[in-house]
Specification:
elongated, ROS/MUCR_sf, Arc Repressor Mutant, subunit A, 8 helices, MucR family transcriptional regulator, 4 strands, ROS_MUCR, mainly alpha, two-stranded antiparallel ribbon
Length: 182
């Protein structure tokens, strides 16, 4: 009897030839049992049926040869944790529509969820000017930048390098004479 070994990090499954002829339900059940027996898996009882269903869909799609279980599922509608108005209610923080928690800046939070600000706005049908930073935080950063002189160095450099020539009305600035070499 031929044996096939599948190696995954901390889990090793041995499948016999008879296992390869199993039904999708049996394979999905075996995969779910292997997943639950992994000591690194922390699952609640409510998560197990959903995981089993996903495994069954994956095994079925592989058996059919389509290779895509996700294609049969409609795109999930994302329900915001709070209303848009409530997310903008405070000047001190923005409340994330993903998890309902307050953040001074949403950028790092969004990257943890694999989203860009544009994708976040699109997911929750937000306007293009929906802020990613709390107004009070933005103001404090602006004040700090002004205090240490950020953004003024370019203007100061241009004004200090240009020679100031006093002119009186009706006079022109003379061009310097270039001496001819002999």
């Amino acid at each position: 009897m031929a044996q096939l070994k599948l190696h995954t990090l901390p889990l090793e499954i041995e499948l016999e030839q008879s296992d390869l002829n199993s039904t999708p339900v049996e394979l999905a059940t075996e995969l779910t049992i292997a997943w639950l027996s992994n000591p690194n898996t922390r699952a609640q009882a409510e998560e197990v049926p959903a995981f089993l269903q996903k495994m069954h869909e994956a095994v079925t799609s592989l058996e059919d040869g389509s290779g895509r279980a996700e294609a049969s599922q409609p795109e999930a509608q994302h329900e915001p944790a709070v209303t848009v108005r409530k997310s903008l209610a405070s000047r001190d923080h923005l409340i994330s529509l993903i998890d309902g928690k307050p953040y001074k800046s949403l950028r790092r939070h969004l990257t943890r969820h694999g989203l860009t600000p544009e994708q976040y706005r699109e997911r929750y049908n937000l306007k293009a000017d929906y802020p990613m930073v709390a107004p009070a935080y933005s103001d404090s950063r602006r004040e700090m930048a002004k205090k240490i002189g950020l953004g003024n160095k370019g203007r100061q450099a241009k004004s200090s390098t240009a020679p100031k020539v006093e002119r009186t009305k009706g006079t022109r600035r003379r061009q310097p004479k270039v001496e001819a070499e002999a």
